[in-house]
């Protein structure tokens, strides 16, 4: 379509569409070029005909959008991720409908990790060597937190997701919200200050650090060394809920618990009130059954004790009688009468009992006592 201007007095005025088409035509005459940068905001869907990403200058921060046909991109098998350093060969073009300048890529060559990823990897190794990511220093979350602090952006959907999840599970939860920058050069310092402030608040038992998804560079503040150290040294347990499942800022490694999403973080920090109610109901029923069984056992024990007490006097009397009978038997066995009954006799001479024949003389008078009766006798012969 021809680019033409409308005559308005002495002026030639282009419509926006005509202007964009004109610029686009001019750009199409430029030669193909190689451009170096880091891949960020890579977007690829199976249903899309093209792959989109942003090429960023790590030194100056300048960016340009890049498009490439999906079939050609897949054929390269580069497996690019955010932060990869690449050379892109293509030509500039203008998307006329929106006036967006893009680089239409014809081919891509990988150079290795970008500056940001390389720096993050060095920082990660350094902090890991200091033990900031060690599992041994991570603390368990409190079962029933008295107060929950949420550090997030001032208009973040993450804030709504965390609060909704907490209120939905445990309506009685007390939440302290600290809003701060979560993107840009001031974000890291702001988050550190907010963490320290909420940790000093009374009764705060757990802190949720939350931010929704974003590009690689959007999430860079959450890998800032100051923030990572603040999370690791925080006196209160910290839950990191930054980005989506595939995102892995360094604060995730330093936090006591990592949540895949802000919603998941809300579910982690409080128990489910419905489950607690059901558990209390089951516990109440179990306590009631235990109490009834205890009463039944005690009633049986008391009944048994009552019966034993009722029978105790008769049993005690019987035992005493048995003991008396045994004592009487022993006394009878030791009695002289019992000895006499077995055929023995007691011989007396005067007032004494004769125990030896040597104490008798021929013709002496003795008294002989038997089991039944007694008689007198005269000694006719003494044998030694």
Q: Could you give a quick summary of the protein structure above?
A:
The chain has 384 residues and is α/β, with parallel strands linked by helices.
Task: List strands and helices in order, with pairings.
Blueprint: E1 6-8, E2 11-13, H1 16-28, E3 33-43, E4 50-56, E5 63-69, H2 70-76, E6 84-95, E7 100-113, H3 115-129, E8 147-152, H4 157-169, E9 175-179, H5 187-199, E10 204-211, H6 225-233, E11 237-242, H7 250-254, E12 257-258, H8 262-269, H9 273-334, H10 336-341, E13 346-349, E14 352-353, E15 365-369, E16 374-378
Parallel strand pairs: 5-7, 8-9, 8-10, 10-11, 11-12
Antiparallel strand pairs: 1-2, 3-4, 3-6, 4-5, 6-7, 13-14, 13-15, 15-16
Keywords:
single chain; 384 residues; alpha/beta; OB fold (Dihydrolipoamide Acetyltransferase, E2P); Rossmann fold; 4 domains; five-stranded mixed beta barrel; five-stranded parallel beta sheet; 10 helices; 16 strands; 26% strand
Provide a descriptive summary of the structure in words:
The chain is an alpha/beta fold. The chain folds into 4 domains: 6-113, Nucleic acid-binding proteins (OB fold (Dihydrolipoamide Acetyltransferase, E2P)); 118-270, Hypothetical protein af1403, domain 2 (Rossmann fold, 3-Layer(aba) Sandwich), CATH 3.40.50; 272-304; 338-378, no CATH class. It has helices at 16-28, 70-76, 115-129, 157-169, 187-199, 225-233, 250-254, 262-269, 273-334, 336-341, and strands at 6-8, 11-13, 33-43, 50-56, 63-69, 84-95, 100-113, 147-152, 175-179, 204-211, 237-242, 257-258, 346-349, 352-353, 365-369, 374-378. The strands form 4 sheets. A 5-stranded mixed β-barrel has the order 3-4-5-7-6. Helix 6 (225-233) links the parallel strand 10 and strand 11. Helix 4 runs parallel beside helix 8 (262-269). It is rod-shaped and about 190 Å long.
């Amino acid at each position: 379509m021809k680019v033409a201007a409308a005559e308005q007095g002495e002026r030639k005025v282009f419509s926006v569409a005509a202007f964009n088409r004109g610029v686009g035509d001019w750009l199409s005459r430029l030669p193909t070029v190689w451009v170096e940068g880091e891949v960020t905001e890579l977007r690829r869907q199976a249903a899309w005909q093209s792959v989109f990403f942003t090429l960023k200058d790590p030194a100056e921060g300048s960016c340009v959008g890049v498009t490439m046909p999906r079939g050609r991109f897949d054929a390269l098998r580069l497996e690019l991720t955010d932060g990869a350093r690449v050379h892109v060969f293509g030509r500039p073009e203008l998307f006329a409908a929106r006036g967006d300048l893009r680089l239409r890529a014809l081919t891509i060559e990988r150079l290795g990790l970008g500056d940001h990823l390389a720096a993050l990897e060095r920082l990660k190794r350094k902090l890991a060597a200091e033990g900031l990511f060690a599992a041994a220093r991570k603390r368990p979350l409190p079962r029933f937190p008295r107060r929950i602090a949420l550090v997030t952006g001032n208009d973040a959907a993450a804030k709504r997701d965390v609060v909704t999840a907490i209120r939905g599970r445990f309506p009685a939860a007390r939440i302290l919200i600290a809003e701060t920058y979560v993107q840009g050069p001031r974000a890291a310092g702001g988050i550190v200050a907010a963490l320290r402030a909420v940790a000093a608040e009374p009764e705060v038992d757990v802190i949720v650090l939350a931010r929704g998804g974003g590009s690689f560079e959007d999430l860079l503040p959450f890998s800032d060394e100051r923030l990572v150290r603040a999370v690791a040294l925080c006196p209160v347990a910290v839950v990191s809920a930054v980005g989506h499942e595939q995102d892995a800022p360094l604060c995730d490694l330093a936090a006591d618990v990592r949540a895949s999403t802000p919603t998941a973080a809300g579910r982690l920090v409080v128990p489910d009130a419905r489950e607690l109610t059901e558990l209390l109901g089951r516990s109440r029923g179990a306590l009631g059954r235990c109490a009834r069984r205890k009463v039944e056992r005690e009633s049986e024990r008391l009944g048994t004790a009552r019966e034993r007490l009722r029978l105790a006097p008769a049993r005690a009397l019987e035992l005493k009688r048995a003991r008396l009978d045994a004592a009487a038997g022993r006394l009878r066995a030791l009695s002289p009468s019992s000895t006499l009954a077995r055929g023995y006799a007691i011989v007396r001479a005067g007032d004494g009992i004769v125990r030896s024949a040597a104490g008798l003389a021929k013709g002496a008078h003795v008294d002989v006592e038997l089991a039944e009766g007694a008689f007198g006798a005269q000694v006719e012969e003494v044998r030694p």
